[in-house]
Amino acid sequence: MFDITKPSAEFVDNPYPTYRYLREEAPVCRQADGSVVLSRFDDLETIYRDTRRFISDKKKVFAPKYGAETPLYEHHTTSLVFNDPPLHTRVRQVMVGAMNPRALKHMEPGLIALVDDLLERMEGRQSVELIADFAGAIPIEVIGNLLDLPRPAREPLREWSLAILGALEPRLTPEQHERGNRAVTDFVALLREIVAERRARPGDPEVDVLTRLIQSDIDGGLSEVELYQNCIFILNAGHETTTNLIGNALALLDRNREARAALIDNPGLMPTAVDEFLRLESPNQFGNRLTTEEVTIGGEPVAAGTDLHLCIGAANRDPKQFDDPDVVMLDRRPNRHLAFASGPHTCVGLSLARMEGRIGIGRFLERYPDYTIADGAERSGRIRFRGYSRLPARLA
Fold it and tell me: E strands, the chain, where?
């Protein structure tokens, strides 16, 4: 039986055979600690939309995992994703307003210039590392601009993000615990200085999300802790989704040369192609909910207070929802994937992530259509987030 705390190396590299087994044979897969892994699309969709019986608050789960007085506990129990109303409502309303179509249109020229500059730096090089040199560099700059962070402050952000999110893995090592706590502490210290400066000299709240968060008066506004921790969340969520989306897509297209050729010949397919990449290789493979009462899932009783692991990666290849789910269909419609979750917790940055994917992948293919992934690609080793830590490539 699948144990989420002890994934094999084969699972980390290719979880999809295991996901198929779970959907077909163990859709309600009980774990030794009493939690449950769920893998069918219909079950996840139902849970995402029912916020009464399935809640996002993880204090009960994170207290024994991190320690109730630790920086990691404070972060992960205060950030948007692991909260329900009223905090979720207050923060989400601020973010939605900051990522409206007008704001995204304002951001697009800068994003294009950033991507083109990264591509220009690759010119003439025999080999490149697509995560460090490209996919990982895009969201750090985009989120840095969104919060209007000083450029020197951006240097440690990627490592902090990886450390904080790495602590969400089902099995936490002492080293991961220490790195995660240190990253939260260092990030909060940086934010204290930046927030003080921003209060003294506010930016334009139409385009500066940090100023918008500071000035928000929705339900009394955000406390200092809520402000700091949700700034960290914005960076982490934006960094992880976009880095993995672009890296996974370029690796996927290298393995599917006919699809790559079709996309190069018809770049108008890019919007639907991005959603297909998100479905096939979801950057976020697992979500979580907690049951508030005894429920029935897949015909089985599940007790109140049960931690549910929602296997997004499995649901997004469920043949009951998607025709030929393991096949790349660049023009797949409809494509109701769950890469951005669903219901009230649908990712607030989904339009920004899609824009980053569309521009990043599209302009890379236009500039370097004959790239190949070289030997030495390495998965991140995590199972909650699916991506590469290294993705070396030759450009011609």
Answer: 28-30, 36-38, 54-55, 127-129, 286-291, 295-297, 300-302, 307-311, 372-373, 378-379, 388-390, 392-394
CA-based nearest residue to 46, from 374, 291, 216, 329: 291
CA dist 323 and 301 (Å) reads: 30
**Whole-number Å distance between alpha carbons of 80 and 255:** 36
R_g of the chain computed on alpha carbons: 20
Element (H, E) at 95: helix 87-98
Please tell me the pTM assigned to this model.
0.95
Residue 17: is the preceding peptide bond cis (ω within 30°)? no
Q: Count each helix (H run) and each strand (E run) in the chain, helices first.
A: 16, 12
Reported as a single tens digit per residue, the pLDDT across 95-109 is 787 777 887 888 899
**Residue 358, amino acid:** R
Q: What is the DSSP letter of 68?
A: T
Report residue 235 CA to chain centroid gap: 10
Q: Which amino acid is at 348?
A: V
Amino acid (1-letter code) at residue 28: V
Nearest to 313 by CA among 255, 385, 256: 385
Instruction: For 123-154, write each residue's pLDDT tens digit.
Output: 999 899 999 999 999 999 999 988 889 998 99
Amino acid at 369: P
Return all residues near 83 (Cβ < 8 A) that are at least 6 apart: 56, 57, 77, 91
How far apart are alpha carbons 288 and 227 in whole angstroms?
A: 23
Q: What is the pLDDT of residues 106-130, one digit of tens each?
A: 889 999 999 999 999 999 998 999 9
What is the C-alpha separation between 208 and 185, in angstroms, rounded? Answer: 24
Tell how strand 295-297 and strand 127-129 pair up: unpaired
User: Taking a C-beta distance cutoff of 8 angstroms, is the pair 51, 83 a contact?
Assistant: no
User: How many residues does this entry show for the chain?
Assistant: 396
The three-point CA angle 43-48-50 to 5° equals 95
CA dihedral of 233, 133, 390, 243, whole degrees rounded to 10 = 30
